[in-house]
Amino acid sequence: MTPPHPFDNAIHLDTIDGNVRRGRTHPEWANFVGPFGGITAAVMLRAIETHPDRIGEPLALTVNFAAPTADGDFDISLRAARTNRTNQHWLAELSQDGAVTTIATAVFGVRRDTWASTEAHPPAAPPPEQLVPGVPGDFIAWGHLYDARFVAGAFPGEHAQPNEVSTSTMWMRDNAQRPVDYPALAALCDIFCPRVFLRRGGFVPSGTISLTTYFHADQRQLDALGGDFVLGTAHANRFSGGYFDQSAQLWSRNRALLATSHQFVYFKGQRSQG
Amino acid sequence: MTPPHPFDNAIHLDTIDGNVRRGRTHPEWANFVGPFGGITAAVMLRAIETHPDRIGEPLALTVNFAAPTADGDFDISLRAARTNRTNQHWLAELSQDGAVTTIATAVFGVRRDTWASTEAHPPAAPPPEQLVPGVPGDFIAWGHLYDARFVAGAFPGEHAQPNEVSTSTMWMRDNAQRPVDYPALAALCDIFCPRVFLRRGGFVPSGTISLTTYFHADQRQLDALGGDFVLGTAHANRFSGGYFDQSAQLWSRNRALLATSHQFVYFKGQRSQG
């Protein structure tokens, strides 16, 4: 029997009661402190997907990282705050020993066949087959679960210098080519290392405090994508006061904009370093 | 005695108990259906600001519009889901007659003196004094509370044609030049008409379902801004399945990036129109 994919392990949830799911952290998904934020976003979304009252597909997801999740079990409590005819507003809270570590809101809804247009353009990139396989970031356990092929803005190595821009562009897929579903797409949106690493030329203590993803892909587009590479690009707009923002886009090989994602990130660093 | 500014009226809240505030809708702020989303975002943020346990300044705000707020009173319930040493995670729910119409999460926190850099560039624009005063949009009550001076992508008028891009850029300030505080900044982030109006060349039924704003400006920068014009620019990335995203930036005259803001919007429209 094939062992389950690490991603499926990570988003596996047991039903405790109608509105509570129980999951657990997995060492493969460890980040510097607590689990990879993307896997936490994925499990929050997955928890809502398991609810029998859920209607439609994910449209928007916001995950606020209030505290690191400790190693071990966690509970996710779910509440449909409002159900409309074609969409539904969810609240989800992840807690451990009664203390909330993660808060999420999500909008699910029905997609309809409407006028459509993609106004954004994917970043210029050679096909992934022409690039060197690598990892999205060094020193982190979960990085080794992905194949990341940088076009620009690679993770800064040992002798890296500060960059003038924070943009990273890379092809990425998970190593086992597990088909991309909404939780996997939510995780991919958070795969980029903190933009401050690029600008400062190395590791800077930092952590996402709020992550918002808009899902543009419908289920048919995800089915067409399967486990293929996704082209991701991310940049920051402003660093100040110990925080910066990041905006990212994820594209399929055939130029479908799958998701746009934004986050606000805490970072540490004295002015004197600048 | 000078009557209070309509914005101060709109965000005025009475304390019902420690965690509940009561406000009311105001006809000046009416939109097509329910109040202007920006004023709802502002009052949610204001409610958190009034809480005696609040620490620091607003960093990130997400407002999910679950249903239109009906004319009349509303209650906002507040909960500090997690308080850390330098930041705090809030949940706020606006309800009428026990039914939730709006859900917000917010992160407040302390800003520190760190390395800083603004990577984005403001859009090219002549000074506001060289442009014609106008309103952000026709047919809406609240539009007349603002002075909006378009640089690009004006609100489509009666004989407008579809545009190839959805970008709007404009200088804006409220008519009474009330100093911009965080609630006012939150409202300004939602001032842009739905991007689908630009692309389709006219009115299309639409409404924001989720709005996220990152506050880059600290209090000192807001004090320096006062009631001066703010340069806003907004664009969409993809329209599909009856939804589109919008990303916006708000700049001060002296090129400070005050806020970045993103939203996901429902729109109506048959494929046959395209």
TrEMBL record, chains A, B:
This is Acyl-CoA thioesterase. InterPro entries: ACOT8-like_C (IPR049450), Acyl-CoA_hotdog (IPR042171), HotDog_dom_sf (IPR029069), TesB_ACOT8-like_N (IPR049449). Residues 26-109 form the Acyl-CoA thioesterase-like N-terminal HotDog domain. The lineage of its organism: Bacteria, Bacillati, Actinomycetota, Actinomycetes, Mycobacteriales. It holds the Pfam family 4HBT_3C. Residues 131-266 form the Acyl-CoA thioesterase-like C-terminal domain.
